[in-house]
Amino acid sequence: MWMFYSADDSKCIFSNWSLWCAYYAAVVCALVSPVRTDGVCPPSCVCAADSGTVTCRDGDDTEVPSDLPEWTSTLILQGKNISTLKRGAFRSNDTELDVATLSLSHNGIQEIEPYAFLGLPRLHLLDLSHNQLESISARAFHGLPELRSLHLNYSLTPAATAQLPHALSAQSLRNLHRLELAGNKLVSIPLERLDIYNLHVLVLENNSIESIGRENVSSLYQQRRLRVYLSLNPFRCTCELEAFYYWLKNSSQCPDAGWLVCSEPEARRGISVEQLRGEDVDCLNENLEAVSYVFLGIVLALIGVVFLMVLYLNRGGIKKWLNNIREACRDQMEVYHYRYEQDSDPRLANVTV
Questions:
Q1: Which helix (H) or strand (E) holds 349?
Q2: Which end of the chain is more exposed for a tag (fewer CB within 10 A), N or C?
């Protein structure tokens, strides 16, 4: 394949050699360089370029695909075996994606490391529902300044629940509009403060919330735009529910208020919280009733003590009085006995005294 020319054509020989070297170098670089191939769909995924959607369902993949098309705006990963979302899991070759919607439900995710979502600065919706989160870093959601909706339904273990308030305090979540935490056995609102967010919707359905404290109720009064969904929680309808009860009656911030029912005490089980009367949750009346019973018990106890003291101090007179009664009864019985003997003896019946 090589052609040699005369000495006069040495320049031509050198020129051809340089051209072939440059060609082979370009081919090698193209083969070994991790260049993002725009328009190429990752294995085991279905891509729709017209809608910008990449869907990857099922499989044994343990990591996020690294060769996503540049046009990806919606990424759906479901049924995978991604136990850990590692730092920068969505950042390939230090490039950023224009993904706006990311669904990671049903992947068995157990841990989210710090800065796991770097490279997604324009992400609007993040769905992490139906996983088994055991560890959430306090910096897990850093780098998501545009995030508007975060779904964590049916995903939190008790360990992750304890870590969640710190993870949600990230500065990048200040523009969060919707937070869904249904089905996580929560006993309270897992937010340190409500006023630092721009929340419009808070979903707390199907948890273990028995009551909402006064501090949270005060925050709810201040966040007028916030709508809170609380159905399927076992509310304990005692005086501890007083502040929440009046918030529920006086505001329209709970769209499913008609579905809230009491689970305790037994006498109010199944009754709608809205149908309770003010005196049912009035702590003052309940406390007064308890105090009245205590006071009555104390009075009766004092009367009993006084009575026993009187008996003890007058034990001598009482004993003499009892003896006198006994003697009088004995004399009376002897008189009855004598008369009975006279009436029963016919010989004594005609005797005139």
A1: helix 346-349
A2: C
Only one residue has tokens 């729709």, namely 48
Q: What are phi and psi of 29, to 5 degrees?
A: -60, -40
Long-range contacts of 53-61 (CB under 8 A, 24+ apart): 56/80
- Residue 129 CA to residue 154 CA, distance in Å, equals 6
In angstroms, the CA 239 to CA 243 distance is 9
Mode of pairing for the β-strands spanning 84-85 and 149-151 = unpaired
Backbone angles phi, psi at 98, to 5 degrees: -95, 25
In this prediction the pTM is 0.71
Q: What is the pLDDT of residues 55-111, one digit of tens each?
A: 999 888 888 888 888 899 999 999 998 999 999 998 876 778 899 999 999 999 999
The closest of 130, 126, 216 to 172, measured between CA atoms, is 126
Across 130-200, the runs of DSSP E, i.e. the strands, are 135-136, 149-151, 178-180
Strand partners, 133: 156
